[in-house]
Amino acid sequence: MNMHTLASWNVMISGFSQHRYFGEVLRFFRQMLSEGFQPDEYTLVVILRACIDTEALQFGQSLHDFLIRSSTLTGVYVTNALMAMYAKCKCIEDANTVFRLASERDLVTWNTMIGGLLENGQNTKSLELFQCMRTQGMKPDRATFIGVLKACIALGSLDMGKMVHACFIEDEDSQCILLMSTLVDMYTKCGSTEDARRIFNKMHTRNAVLWNIMLAGYSHSVEEAVKLFEQMEGDSLKPDEVTFLNLLKGCQTEEHLEFCQLIHNCCIEYGHETDLYIGSCLVDVYSTCGSLIEAWRVFEVMPE
């Protein structure tokens, strides 16, 4: 007597999917069908999530074909999982087809498609889809904004970045550290350090990542970067490797030797003198600034 139930099949499929035993998952799925069970939305989503791996693309395509052939009605969760699978497997046109044919779309559907376009280097299309999303009355969330801001960074589009910023400038997410860090990053990389600093100054909470992004924006002005670094120390935040690398980027001429020495002393103070990346950067900067003796001293203490 067969004691299997849909729930028991789902447990087996879920367990093997989590461990990426795709062959066994496919075998279980076929056996489940042969016993007369129809997969539910949970079954389908679990399998598709396991297929977010290029080696499992054929598996995911087979499942999609099965859904089409059997005219199985699927909900928005399966739609989203199908899109994510195709996008991760670099089949963005297939993901777009699923998106266009979807009978139901939620916020995750839009974010998945926008994110998929970004992952596949189609930044302009992701921004076009963002505009379409808004015209259709779907309200973006912070994940949407973070995604499209990254597209603006990739395109170097300050105007588009400002447009995206205007969409949430009065929103409650204006203090979300991840969103605002991405916004500051956009402004610095698109050439508007002044706007970036204005937003940075308004933030109630600033973590090391945000400080480092702002410091990177001053790579053209080591004087301003050092002043900002001193403020960072005043906020009792411990600088990391990225902090010092960003500071050293601004030391490009002999006039900056004094700043290089100051930054070097801070590296020693915070225990980063023997860091390989910082050491290499110090050697390069000292050489650029014309202090070969200091460059050699740093080189001697670098790890082999």
UniProtKB/TrEMBL annotation:
Gene Ontology terms describing biological process: RNA modification
Q: Gene3D superfamilies in the record, alphabetically?
A: Tetratricopeptide repeat domain (1.25.40.10)
A Pfam family: PPR_2
- Entry keywords, A to Z: Repeat
Q: Give the residue range of the signal peptide.
A: none
* Keyword set includes Repeat: yes
Q: Which PANTHER family match?
A: PENTATRICOPEPTIDE REPEAT-CONTAINING PROTEIN (PTHR47926)
Question: What name appears for this protein in its UniProt entry?
Answer: Pentatricopeptide repeat-containing protein
The organism is Ceratopteris richardii (Triangle waterfern)
Taxonomy of origin reads: Eukaryota, Viridiplantae, Streptophyta, Embryophyta, Tracheophyta
